[in-house]
Specification:
The complex is a heterodimer of chains A (about 110) and B (about 475). With about 110 residues, chain A is mainly α. Chain A has a domain at about 30-85. Chain A has 4 helices and no strands. In chain B, strands 5-4-3-6-7-8 form a 6-stranded parallel β-sheet, with helices on both faces. In chain B, strands 1-2 form a two-stranded antiparallel sheet. Chain B has 2 domains: about 5-270, no CATH class; about 295-465, TPP-binding domain (Rossmann fold, 3-Layer(aba) Sandwich). Classes of the chains: A mainly alpha (about 110), B alpha/beta (about 475). Chains A and B meet through helix 1, helix 2, helix 3 and helix 4 of A and helix 1, helix 2, helix 3, helix 4 and helix 8 of B.
Chain lengths: ~110, ~475
């Protein structure tokens, strides 16, 4: 049983290093999207919430699980949508004469 | 391949997309695609979870799960789509808070679920940490939200014996955790929940509005760690990876932010910074030096004769909703062959990098946004530094006055420029509540008024010349 714990701890520590390495390279111009993007990622607690509600065996577990799924969905959906909206706004210098450079308008 | 292995493989894929997304944030070019990749990874993980077996049976309450998700989506999408960019920090705070709340609920429910099977002590410890950290994050985010949304004062809330009370509550939580580890009592768990809630509230109360960028990234880290703790309890590598990534990112950002303010993290969290206002707000100082003020037209003429202009925006610009007019002014100057840059202080705004987002929303191309160090070398050769709605982040006291509360904070050195134009609503001090010597500098011209009005007048004046 304790081997499982060790395995999880290994994942935790390695991820901590990977995370720190990647995030140190994010320029400060993108720190707000980084915050809201990582915010969306911890919304993965939705998976945990689903398992909790899906395995609920009493009323109290059902109520708490139901609440957890709502909160986690808010977190994950809101997080990704907001981040996308923000990142959409970051544009390089537009070529002169064109007022709004649109992404995928093919002529 | 068994069902469980397949689902675990899908989870592995999802965890990888999260790392790819964070990597994508290394440049504005790839960031958006990265975020979409992570969203896809998340979707796949959620769909796969519907097929997972719990305790040897397929998921119960599938319709209840779908209903809860539906409710979440209905609330989240419009909120996320239509909220103003200036309100972004409180939105991130609240989304972060609900994530922490969900993590705490997952841990509590799991505790109730597994209690009868006499789980090992370390399992209970994971649960309790999940409850504690998740709830602190939830309550703390709620207070941060209230402060940012101006439902309550943005100044630090202090009362006598604050540190002592916070310390006692924190200690009580630790004692309670140990007791629950020994007794595995559910009723004590509810007390821990309440105590964690109180702890979250009183922890955030003494932190002032301008320090909230640090606070939000710290709370983000807390939620990440709470999710990782739930991952331990539920035996999910996906949750551990995602939670730890966020935890690492939050802690790193927290450190970067406090460094950008030249203060230690504990100073930011515990000193109730900004609760004392020492600035007189007078236009003449005791030593007889007074400020020089000019009109928007004077400012426009000065800008018209320059060849390099560095704009230093602060949160006041966003409050006045002047970003778009500012960009118009910058475009106008550029069309006259004047070089224009924006110098962005890392803590300008109410969350890390907030000012960049606000300017990007006003269609400022990201090549024009300079980080502090870059900006300071540009300022040395600039004709005009145009300060709009910033104050503490250009205060030279941070460099040369050891008695100043902001001493040691890296600043944007506006006074390196030939001339300084300071657009200000009034002589009111910035968040730190201290005098700004730059206002009395002979290089400086103050233009009083609402930033948006002044900028509009300046645009008209530049056009007319």
């Amino acid at each position: 049983m304790h081997n499982v714990l060790l395995q999880y701890a290994t994942v935790l520590i390695l991820t901590a290093f990977v995370g720190t390495e990647i995030i140190a390279k994010v320029p400060s111009i993108l720190h707000t999207p980084l915050m809201s993007g990582s915010n969306a990622i911890h919304g993965v607690i939705l998976v945990g919430s689903m398992l909790i509600l899906g395995g609920a065996t009493s009323n109290i577990q059902e109520v708490l699980g139901f609440l957890a799924v709502i909160l986690a969905t808010l977190n994950v959906v809101g997080g990704f949508v907001v981040t996308d909206r923000m990142l959409e706004m970051f544009k390089p210098r537009a070529p002169k004469a064109k007022e709004t450079p649109s992404d995928e308008v093919a002529q | 391949m068994s069902r469980d292995t397949l689902i675990d493989l899908i989870y592995l894929f999802s965890a990888t997309t999260f790392i790819v997304a964070l990597k994508g944030l290394g440049s504005p070019k790839h960031a958006r695609r990265g975020n979409m990749v992570a969203a896809f990874g998340m979707l796949v993980a959620v769909v796969a979870t519907f097929f997972k077996y719990v305790d040897g049976h397929s998921l119960h309450h599938v319709w209840l799960i779908l209903l809860a998700m539906f409710i979440g989506v209905i609330i989240a999408v419009p909120t996320a789509r239509f909220v103003k960019m200036t309100a972004m920090p409180q939105l991130v705070a609240i989304f972060n808070g609900v994530g922490g709340g969900a993590a705490a609920l997952v841990s509590i429910t799991e505790f109730i679920h597994i209690k009868s099977s006499h789980p090992a002590t370390y399992v209970i410890l994971e649960v309790l940490l999940g409850v504690l950290i998740g709830t602190v994050s939830f309550a703390g985010s709620a207070i941060a939200f209230a402060k940012l949304q101006e439902l309550m004062t943005g100044r630090p809330v202090t009362y006598p014996g604050q540190q002592l009370i916070n310390g006692v509550v924190g200690l009580a939580a630790v004692v309670l955790i140990v007791t629950i580890l020994v007794t595995a009592s559910t009723s004590l768990l509810w007390i821990l929940l309440a105590l964690a809630f109180v702890l979250g509230v009183i922890f955030v109360l003494p932190i002032g509005g301008a320090d909230v960028p640090v606070l939000i990234s710290l709370l983000n880290a807390f939620t990440g760690l709470a999710v990782a703790a739930s991952g331990f309890t539920l035996g999910s590598n996906l949750l551990i990876v995602a939670g730890t990534l966020v935890g690492a990112s939050g802690i790193l950002l927290t450190r970067l932010m406090s460094k950008a303010m030249g203060r230690s993290l504990s100073n930011v969290l515990f000193s109730a910074f900004g609760s004392v206002v020492t600035a007189s707000g007078a236009t003449t100082r005791d030593d007889g030096r007074s400020v020089r003020s000019g009109t928007a037209e004077d400012a426009a003429i000065l800008l018209g004769f320059s060849s390099r202009v560095v704009i230093i925006p602060g949160y006041g610009l966003a409050v006045a909703q002047g970003q778009h007019v500012l960009r118009e002014l910058a475009d106008l100057l550029e069309s006259k062959g004047i070089e224009v840059f924006y110098a962005i202080h890392p803590v300008a705004g109410r969350m890390p990098g907030h000012m960049n987002v606000l300017l990007a929303e006003a269609n400022v191309p990201y090549e024009q946004l300079l980080e502090m160090d870059e900006a300071n070398s540009e300022l040395a050769t600039a004709d005009v530094a145009l300060v709009v709605g910033a104050n503490d982040t250009v205060n030279p006291a941070a460099l040369d006055d050891p008695s100043s509360p902001i001493y040691g904070m890296p600043i944007i050195k506006a006074d390196l420029a030939e001339n300084v134009l300071f657009l200000k609503r009034s002589m009111r001090p910035g968040f730190a509540g201290i005098e700004n010597d730059l206002l009395y500098n002979p290089k400086t011209t103050l233009v009083f008024g609402d930033a948006k009005d002044t900028l509009t007048k300046m645009v008209a004046a530049v056009k007319a010349n």
